Amino acid sequence: MKKVFVTGATGLLGTNTVIKLLQYDYSVTALVRKKSSWLGEKSEHLRLIEGGLFSDISEYLQDMDAVIHIAAETGQDLLNYKDYKKTNYDATAHLFAQATKAEVKKFLFVSTANTLGYGISADRGNEQAPQLYPFTRSYYAKSKLEAENYLLQQGRKTNVIIVNPTFMIGAYDHKPSSGKIILWAWKKKVVFYPKGAKNFVHAEDAAEGIIKAVEQGKGGEKYLLASENLTYKEFFRKINTITGQNPVMIPIPDSVLVMLGVIGDGLRKLKIKTGLSSANMKALRIDNFYSNKKSVEELGIRYQSIDKAIKDAIRFFERKQF
After folding, report:
1. Average pLDDT, the chain
2. NAD-dependent epimerase/dehydratase domain: from which residue to which, for each copy (predicted)?
């Protein structure tokens, strides 16, 4: 039985990943802040360790086949780059140093598609495309790219594999995080939508991609975990169809998003936390499309429909009474 150490095990992607690892007969040791945060079933092959990303976990890394590092600071409202760098870069370097010292064979780093250049429907972004604005101005994406570059520059004793998931939808989004986009449209009589587009992926498929990357991925390589490229209007229409609702759909003028971005920039200068910024509002106005060709051909991933991801997310939200 292969042994893996996982961080970020209680989030959307982490929970789905640990559940799949157990289904595939892995022995999992997971670092969590609180054991009570684990939403999955108990298993004799799952060991929960309470601690932080800067804890000394060297004793738990002995005889591990791989480390899967999912934990990250993903919020969009933090004001300083150092707030992202501490979690997304410094903690990653700390964990990697411990993994290397313990002679762990593989270190899988979960990054984001936004460290790679996006494209349009006819020319989608891929693993070789350089990062583009507005994500070059995103502290989150910048910190993830810095961590990627650091890991790829390290020695070869521990193989580094990077996965770059797009926007994830699915069950176990208990905060919720990315699932807020469903709550934006679900049970609403009027739905306002930006004119841009993005790539969506089922969280289960992203978890599957992580496991396949550990098993089949090549050291020093990146793998986009991406499924359907959809406009926001198309995505919200899927929610409407699945839930049997028929709200009024109103596009948000680009000028309004530009104005909100400027307001957000001003609030940030006043040290007021907000998810508004010119970069974030620009992200809502572009076609943020990606290709999954490499992950399909090299990892053999079969992506599920986003309709299935939406249904799974809504069922979870219904159980949690969101």
Report:
1. 95
2. 4-224
Rg of the chain taking only CA atoms, in angstroms? 19
Integer Cα distance of 290 and 227 in angstroms: 8
Burial of residue 83 (CB within 10 Å: 0-12, 13-18, 19+) is: middle
Which pLDDT score, from 0 to 100, does residue 290 have? 97
Maximum pairwise Cα distance, the chain: 57
pLDDT for the residue 322: 62
- The token duo for 264 is 């957000």
Percent of the chain with pLDDT over 90: 91
Structural domains in the chain, CATH included, are 3-320 (3.40.50.720)
| Helix-helix angle 12-23:203-216, to 10 degrees | 60
Beta-ladder partners of 106: 66, 159
pTM for the whole structure: 0.96
Per-position DSSP letters for 229-245, written without gaps between them: EEEHHHHHHHHHHHHT-
Given the structure tokens 């309470």, which residue do they identify?
50
